[in-house]
Design a protein that fits this description.
Radius of gyration of chain A: 17 Å
Structural class of chain C: mainly alpha
Low-confidence stretches of chain C: none
Helix content of chain C: over 70%
Strand content of chain A: under 5%
Order of helices and strands of chain A: HHH
Mean pLDDT of chain A: 89
Number of helices of chain A: 3
Low-confidence stretches of chain A: none
Largest interface: B-D, 50 and 55 residues
Shape of chain C: globular
CATH class of chain A: Mainly Alpha
Number of strands of chain A: 0
Oligomer: heterotetramer
Mean pLDDT of chain C: 90
Distance between the termini of chain A: 53 Å
Radius of gyration of chain C: 21 Å
Number of helices of chain C: 21
Distance between the termini of chain C: 30 Å
Structural class of chain A: mainly alpha
Strand order of the largest sheet of chain C: 1-2
Number of domains of chain C: 1
Shape of chain A: elongated
Chains: A mainly alpha (101), B mainly alpha (619), C mainly alpha (471), D mainly alpha (495)
Number of strands of chain C: 2
CATH topology of chain A: Helix Hairpins
Chain lengths: 101, 619, 471, 495
């Protein structure tokens, strides 16, 4: 393995934190979902890297599962975006705080 | 004989219970007949038992009342000479008073309750008299207290009456506390509460213990007998119907304290200190009550204070070691005081339900019979020579005098002074009631025969009561002392001393009469000075106790309730509950519905966990 | 995949394939009750198969176990879903749910949950968890006429997606640390002191965040009340019971395998347990909405269950399973009562609306009261023995501090469990007559009630079963 | 103790489960209120008869003359063990009797009567279970079983502040009970570690070896539960509220029975299990008892609600009972147990009389009451009788217990006894104030002029007779208590 695992991990952690920051900071639902995608991509990076580090196929299998799962999640999320847009004319998460306490 | 003795006790109980449970369902005169029958039956049973009572006495154990561990108390009766003479007096006087009450109460709608309580009272009183152990005696002791409570407040619609009953109950209960402690202590010492056993083994104790126990018993006796300082209830107790005053607050219950001390005399007499205390309490009460009687306006209150005073004499007698003198005075006093009360009841009736003596006067015109009966009673009370009261009081003073030391001479002196005051207030009463013309406006009420003729035997007994224990000096044989097997109570003073004593007694009697004659022969309504006001209010003892005891007590109660209970205990608990809810409310603010905020929760949680791991890794 | 493997996963296959079939045919035959019934039967048959049939393989594909434990969990989740379907008959009519979709989604959820509990590898765990989480995104927002449903769906979606990210990252890190997804080897990664151990621990931290979200531990719990309030009552029931239970049952073996080496993790769990119990309890106190209160109550109960997780081993496992089953009966029953009181426009969940209802609808109110008391742990209802077993296990294994805090929390909790009872029975009647309720609802409520009562008086059968699956 | 318990007729179980059966029947016919009250009456009568039948087995010796033991929850080591000795016999008879009284006095309860009677019956099972259980968890279950019915009885059928009172009652008692539960489990585990046998049986757990600090800790946990129920001084604050707000039947059960379970728990469980700790705690117990005795009496003196006066009087009387326990000798213990029974009867009777007065006048405020004797002499007479018994008039119920306690206490510690005697005075003060404000004084003109009706006579006469009998001839009860009490005292290992 050319790239040391540490570098990979640092990179993907940065990526993950970027995604997380996006989730925490943005108010637009679509941007939040994009943040989540970035987080998941960081995961994929770790998996592939670890797979290479351990000389194993399992990690790559997991990446495939992850991608499949992500696509399912994205489709549901986008359906939700459409639904919310239609109901409330807004996909700003700040407009959804009716229930509290 | 056992049956008879049991009946003696049970008949009044049966009568009382029967009247209490079914009285209201029975046709009209029947409850009265039951009540009277029960008491008279009891009297007859007492007469029947009398021959057996001498010497060791007659005893019956009905059943075991309480038995636990080492402790045992039986329903056990003992009719010894002391008990017999007392029982005879109680049933006899009670019978006459019941008869009188039948007339007195005949128009009262609630008479079954009255007679039920009266019968129960007789039962309780007989229990005190006949009990062979202190616990059973205590049962009677409290029983008379309750009946007294119920009867003082008999006309319950007026709040004062009920309050007077309550006062009587509670004040006497203060005395009972001492009695109870004494009782507990005696059991702890002897392992039994049998009166004879305790008396028999009293000498085993060390003097201090005896003194304390004797003082505790004195405390109990003071409560029931209205002696200083537990005397304030008795004048108020006059709120009850007159027969009640006659029976309970003159003849019987108030003498229970004297009886207790006589009962426990072998124990009590072992402590000179306690004996001195008893004598002192007695003579001070006698003096105190006599002075109060001087200023009273209500006829029954005069008699109430005089009762207190006479019972003080009895205590004095016990205190100077003469049981027979105490019992002698107890008997004569029972006769003449019952007579006085019942006659007073007649007078009140004749005055149109007016009991203020300032509004009487000239009552002789309204009924000659009552006049003579009442005056006979007053003569006994005042200690007119040759009446029963004279002999019994004289014996007590003589017994005090015979002790010879300075303390007892002082007591004798106070007793003599009291005798003078007694004479004074007796004749004040007589003059105010009978002299002159009627000052009130009410017309006389009808006086049924039943209210008059039971007084006659009492008058005879009172006047001739001296024969019971006529001293040798007068040619008698001190029969009562002999019957009580207390021959050593019979005094053998020198002739000079006897003359001196009798002379001074007669002297103070005449002096009192003279002063009364001068001052009260003509009615002059001007007794409103500060001293008479002070005496009228019983030396302001009620106000004093209210200040010193009742108000602080209420303050303590109030503090416990509002301060501790509501403020502290409930406050802490409710405060805890409120704090919990307040925490909940503030935690609730966290869930503010905002997704962004919730996501921050995630971030913080992550931070904490990762931080923790890093911390652990670093260490 | 061999036939034996398929046979071993038969219950899950029944659920998943059945779900697919219902989804497809449901589009053509729009008969709501038919599909609900079919789904019910499928779930029951899955439970039956899982309960009765020995699996030929002990582990399938290195991902899923077919141990008694896994089968037991499958039975429980299948039955929960069956119960959800049963209680939804009238509710689905009221809100005009698409019968086929609703049924199939629930069946998918069941399949996902049973896979999750059976997982022996992190991949299996991830797949099972995501399978039912995805389904729940839809189900929570299933009521299209309700703004709150949409809000709840959104909230769950956002948090679920983020949690998925954490979960995946955690799994990836653990994999990086150990080189394996299989539980046993994956855990070895953090057991050996070395350069890779911090990575493994970081993975665990991520994992805990994700789990914290799923079973709503404080401070990851904030979404819970909102989502429960907005979701359709039967779905809230699933969320509060099976969805959390599946996660817990999946983590139980994981933590047990962790053994001594996971001291750090246990420390964190210990802390989480305490704050979860306390914060949940206090936050539930001022609630005036039944569903929100139940949400906080579920938070508190997850705190209790964390104690069992911490205790671990057979003691902790038995206590956990026993507790979970009884808790599920009571909580699901409570949501069932809310379901049965639902009208076309709203669900009756504010205490204000419940006032005096006990006299209009005595049977359902009494049953609800029983569920509340069971949750509070008052004998003779089963909740008592659940707590008893839990605290006994905790005391036995040296977690006295947690047990005492748990006892304190359950004392305070009594107050908020009593409040619905007070409202129902001890206040002036303000409620109007509601729907008398359907037979299916009564059947389910009666079932839960009887279970709560019977297990409260004689819990021995369930205890024996638990001992059997968790030796 | 007896090996062939399986051969015996399960009288205790029948006694215990009959009310539950009755409750189920009541609920079954919930649409017909008349049916439920007849069922309740029938059940409680049967239970009362059964309790008397159980008395026939009594041998007067110390052991269990009726004993049942069956396996129950093996997994936790919990067994279904019941036993009856002289102490539990008396308490069971008292329970059955007061239950019967409670049913009859609630006869015209028409608000959800089926539920009401069912709850009363369940409560009966709980109370009797407490008096019979010999397995600690079984005991605990019955202990808690008393909670729910009482909570509902107060909360649903109570008066103004019923919810507050009900919740307070529930939380207070539960707080104590949870301490008990923790201690029971810990003790069980400790015993298991020592012997390898995991059990909750009382007799086995008595053999556990404990260090003194362990013993003290467990003892305090046990006492927490019992102290709340009794209630001992600082833990009493639930009682006045609960008593005042409860409907009459619940008040009767609360005062007459529930409070007794606390004392019973002490003598049956806390003292024998932890004798050394108990010995150390006796002075504290006595001081708390005395504080409660005076404190409650003083507060009672100022109350304006007559039901509240009686409620506080309960605390005061239970202080007496507790003092007897602290004195730790035969006479005092017998006195305590006797006073418990006496207090059950008198206070129950007082609550009934107050309820009847309340029904006629619509108020319980002293200021608004008065002169009841005029309009309802019979009712007033009963009220007076029960009040007198409550203030400890000799010859009526409470006195016999109190005097034995005093005698026993005096021989253990004279100072305690002397203080306690003082308490008697204050009970007279508040009781007489209550009597005065209620039956004497000017009339308050009740809107219902009716004196006692047939059913009310039926309830009050037996109570009155009992009050007198317990005062005059309590010896049979003392005989039944003698051997068990002396056995327990020996077991405690005290001087």
């Amino acid at each position: 393995m050319i790239v040391p695992l540490e570098h990979l991990l640092i990179l993907s952690t940065i990526l993950f934190l970027l995604g997380l920051t996006c989730v925490l900071v943005r108010r637009n639902l679509i941007m939040i979902l994009i943040g989540v995608e970035i987080m998941l991509n960081a995961v994929g990076l770790v998996l592939v890297g670890a797979s290479a580090f351990w000389q194993q196929i399992d990690g790559q299998v997991m990446v495939l599962f992850l991608m499949a799962m992500t696509s399912a999640e994205v489709s549901i999320s986008l359906a939700m975006v459409v639904y919310l847009q239609r109901r409330k004319n807004s996909i700003d998460i700040r407009s959804f705080d009716e229930m509290r306490g | 004989m056992a049956i008879l003795l049991t009946l003696l006790l049970l008949l009044p109980l049966l009568g009382g219970v029967l009247n209490a449970c079914l009285g209201n369902r029975l046709p009209k005169p029947l409850p009265v007949i039951i009540a009277n029958g029960a008491v008279i039956g009891s009297f007859l049973a007492c007469l029947g038992c009398l021959p057996q009572a001498g010497g060791e006495g007659l005893r019956v154990t009905v059943f075991t009342w309480l038995s636990s561990g080492d402790f045992q108390a039986d329903i056990g009766l003992l009719l010894d000479p002391l008990a017999a003479i007392m029982a005879l007096m109680v049933t006899g006087v009670a019978s006459l008073i019941h008869l009188y009450a039948a007339g007195y109460m005949q128009e009262d709608a609630d008479q079954t309750r009255f007679f039920a309580l009266l019968n129960l009272f007789v039962f309780a009183m007989l229990t005190i008299v006949l009990a062979d152990n202190l616990l059973l005696m205590f049962l009677g002791w409290e029983g008379v207290g309750f009946c007294s409570y119920g009867l003082i407040g008999f006309w319950y619609r007026k709040t004062e009456n009920a309050a007077a009953g309550r006062k009587a109950f509670i004040v006497t209960r203060i005395g009972d506390l001492f009695f109870t402690i004494g009782l507990l202590w005696l059991f702890a010492l002897f392992g039994t509460l049998g009166i004879e056993a305790i008396n028999g083994r009293a000498t085993e104790l060390d003097p201090t213990t005896i003194t304390i126990i004797a003082l505790l018993l004195l405390g109990g006796a003071c409560g029931k007998s209205a002696q200083l300082p537990l005397m304030t209830w008795l004048p108020d107790a006059m709120a009850g119907p007159t027969p009640v005053s006659a029976l309970i607050h003159a003849a019987t219950m108030v003498t229970a304290g004297v009886y207790l001390l006589c009962r426990m005399f072998p124990l009590v007499s072992l402590s000179p200190l306690a004996m001195g205390a008893i004598a002192l309490v007695g003579v001070l009460t006698a003096l105190y009550a006599a002075t109060c009687a001087l200023a009273q306006r209500e006829i029954k209150r005069v008699l109430a204070y005089s009762t207190m005073s006479q019972v003080g004499y009895m205590f004095l007698a016990v205190g100077v070691g003469s049981v027979s003198a105490a019992m002698f005075h107890l008997l004569t006093h029972a006769f003449f005081k019952a007579l006085l009360f019942m006659a007073a009841g007649c007078l009140i009736n004749l005055a149109g339900h007016e009991n203020d003596i300032y509004l009487m006067g000239g009552m002789r015109q309204r009924s000659k019979t009552i006049f003579w009966l009442f005056v006979a009673g007053l003569f006994c009370l005042a200690g007119a020579p040759l009446t029963g009261g004279f002999f019994s009081k004289d014996l007590i003073l003589a017994a005090a005098f015979a002790q010879g030391d300075l303390f007892h001479l002082g007591i004798y002196g106070l007793g003599l002074l009291t005798a003078g005051i007694t004479s004074l207030y007796s004749f004040r009463l007589a003059y105010l009631v009978f002299a002159g013309d009627f000052r009130g406006e009410e017309l006389p009420h009808e006086l049924p025969g039943l209210m008059q003729w039971p007084l006659v035997p009492l008058a005879f007994l009172g006047v001739l009561g001296g024969l019971l224990n006529l001293p040798h000096f007068f040619g008698g044989h001190s029969w009562l002392s002999g019957w009580l097997s207390r021959d050593h109570d019979v005094l053998h003073l020198s002739m000079n001393a006897e003359y001196l004593l009798i002379g001074s007694a007669v002297g103070v009697f005449i002096l009192g009469w003279l002063i009364a004659h001068l001052r009260y022969r003509k009615f002059a309504p001007r007794e409103t000075g500060p001293i008479s006001g002070f005496l009228l209010a019983g030396w302001q003892f009620d106000a004093l106790f209210d200040r010193v005891l009742i108000q602080p007590f209420r303050a303590v109660c109030g503090f416990c309730w509002q301060g501790l209970e509501v403020g502290l205990v409930d406050g802490l608990i409710d405060g805890f509950a409120r704090t919990c809810v307040a925490w909940g409310q503030s935690l609730r603010l966290l869930a503010n519905g905002r997704i962004a905020f919730y996501l921050q929760g995630f971030a913080w949680g992550l931070l904490v966990i990762v931080g923790w791991f890093l911390l652990r890794a670093a260490v | 995949m061999s036939f034996a493997a398929l046979q071993s996963l038969l219950p899950q296959l029944i659920l998943a394939l059945g779900a697919t079939a219902v989804l497809m045919f449901g589009a053509w035959i729009p008969k709501r009750r038919l599909w609900l019934t079919v789904g019910l039967l499928l779930a029951l048959s899955a439970a039956l198969v899982a309960g009765l049939m020995e699996a030929p393989l002990a582990e399938v594909g290195g991902m899923y176990a077919t141990t008694l434990y896994a089968r037991f969990c499958t039975v429980v989740w299948s039955l929960t879903i069956a119960a959800t379907l049963l209680i939804s008959f009238r509710y689905a009519d009221l809100h005009r749910f698409g019968g086929g979709e609703y049924t199939s989604l629930l069946l998918f959820a069941a399949a996902g949950m049973s896979l999750l509990s059976a997982a022996t590898s992190l991949i299996g765990l991830f797949l099972g968890l995501e399978a039912f989480t995805l389904v729940l995104y839809i189900l929570i927002a299933f009521n299209r006429t309700d703004d709150r449903g949409a809000e709840a769906g959104l909230k769950y979606l956002v948090f679920g997606a983020v949690a998925t990210g954490f979960l995946a990252f955690g799994i990836a890190l653990i994999y990086a640390a150990s080189g394996s997804f299989h539980f046993q080897e994956a855990l070895a990664g953090i057991q050996i002191e070395g350069a890779l151990r911090p990575i493994g621990l970081a993975g665990w931290a991520m994992l805990l965040v994700a789990v914290g979200f799923k079973i709503s531990l404080v401070p990851f719990h904030l979404w819970t009340p909102d989502v429960y309030q907005g979701a359709p009552a039967p779905i809230s029931g699933v969320l509060a019971t099976a969805a959390k239970g599946a996660v817990l049952t999946a983590f139980l073996p994981l933590l047990t395998m962790l053994g001594e080496s996971g001291a750090e993790i246990k420390n964190v769990l210990w802390l989480l347990a305490i704050i979860t119990m306390l914060v949940g309890t206090f936050a539930a106190l001022p609630q005036t909405n039944l569903k929100r209160m139940l949400a906080y109550s579920s938070v508190v109960h997850m705190g209790y269950l964390l104690i069992a997780l911490l205790v671990g081993g057979s003691d902790g496992g038995q206590a956990l399973l026993f507790y979970l089953v009884i808790y599920s009966f009571a909580t699901f029953g409570a949501f069932g009562v809310v379901t049965s009181f639902a009208t076309e426009h709203e669900e009756l969940q504010e205490y204000e609306d419940l006032r005096g209802l006990g006299y209009l609808h005595p049977r359902r109110s009494i049953v609800l009261a029983a569920f509340m008391l069971s949750l509070a742990g008052i004998p003779p209802l089963a909740g008592f023995f659940a707590k008893f077993g839990l605290f006994q296990a905790a005391l036995r294994n040296g977690y006295a501090g947690l047990a005492i805090i748990g006892v304190f929390a359950s004392l305070v909790s009594v107050y908020y469990y009593l409040r619905p009872i007070i409202v129902l029975f001890m206040q002036e009647r303000s409620a109007y007559q509601l729907h008398p309720g359907s037979k299916s609802e009564y059947l389910l409520l009666a079932g839960c009630f009887v279970a709560i009562l019977a297990l409260g008086i004689y819990p021995e059968p369930l205890l024996n079963l638990v001992v059997l699956v968790l030796p | 103790m007896t090996a062939d318990s399986s051969l015996q007729f399960p009288l205790l179980s029948l006694l215990l489960w009959l009310p539950i059966l009755g409750a189920l029947l009541c609920l079954l016919w919930y649409k017909a209120p008349a049916a439920s009250r007849w069922i309740a009456l029938g059940t409680s009568t049967a239970v009362f008869v059964l309790s008397l039948v159980a008395g026939l087995y009594s041998t007067g010796s110390a052991g269990w003359f009726l004993y049942e033991d069956a396996s129950w929850i093996e997994h936790f080591g919990i067994r279904y063990t019941l036993g009856m000795d002289g102490i539990s016999l008396l308490l069971i008879i008292l329970t059955a009797f007061l239950q019967l009284v409670a049913v009859v006095i609630s006869w015209d309860q028409d608000k959800f009567s089926a539920l009401f009677f069912a709850l009363i019956l369940v409560l009966g099972t709980g109370i009797m279970g407490v008096f019979l259980a010999l397995d600690l968890i079984l005991f605990y279950l019955f202990w808690e079983l008393m909670l729910i019915p009482m909570f509902f009885l107060i909360g649903v059928w109570g008066y103004k502040r019923k919810v507050y009172a009900a919740v307070k009652f529930f939380l207070f008692t539960l707080a104590g009970s949870l301490c008990l539960l923790l201690a029971v489990i810990s003790l069980h585990l400790l015993h298991g570690e020592q012997t390898g046998v995991y059990t909750f049986a009382l007799e086995a757990l008595q053999q556990t070896r404990l260090s003194f600090s362990q013993e003290m800790l467990f003892y305090l946990c046990f006492m927490a539960a019992f102290a709340v129920k009794v209630p001992i001084f600082p833990f009493h604050s639930w009682l006045p509220d609960a008593h005042t707000e409860a409907p009459v039947a619940a008040s009767v059960d609360l005062a007459g029975l529930l409070l007794k379970t606390g004392v019973y728990g002490m003598i049956r469980f806390a003292f024998p299990l932890f004798p050394h700790a108990a010995e150390k705690s006796l002075p504290v117990l006595a001081v708390l008892a005395l504080i409660g005795l005076f404190y409650a009496a003083w507060i009672a003196y100022l109350q304006t609600d007559i039901k509240r006066i009686v409620a506080y009087s309960s605390i005061s009387h239970l202080g007496f009972v507790l003092l007897g326990l602290a004195a730790w000798n035969q006479t005092a213990w017998e006195g305590s147990l006797l006073l418990m029974i006496n207090h059950g009867v008198t206070t129950g009777a007082l609550f009934i009389a107050i309820a009847l007065i309340h029904k006629r006048t619509g108020t319980r405020e002293i200021a608004k009451l008065g002169g009841i004797w005029k309009s309802q002499p019979n009712l007033a007479a009963f009220f007076l009788l029960f009040s007198l018994a409550s203030l400890g008039l000799p010859g009526l119920a409470n006195f016999s217990g109190e005097i034995l306690i005093l005698i026993g206490t005096f021989s253990s510690n004279a100072v305690w006894a002397i203080f306690a005697v003082g308490g008697v005075l204050f009970s007279a003060a508040y009781i007489l104030r209550m009597v005065q404000g209620t039956i004497w004084g000017p009339c308050c003109e009740p809107f219902d002029k009716q004196d006692l009706g047939g059913r009310e006579w039926l309830v009050l006469i037996p109570l009155a007779v009992l009050v007198v009998i317990l005062g005059c001839y309590p010896q049979p009860l003392l005989d039944s208590l003698r051997e068990p009490v002396s056995f327990m005292l020996r077991q405690g290992g005290q001087p």
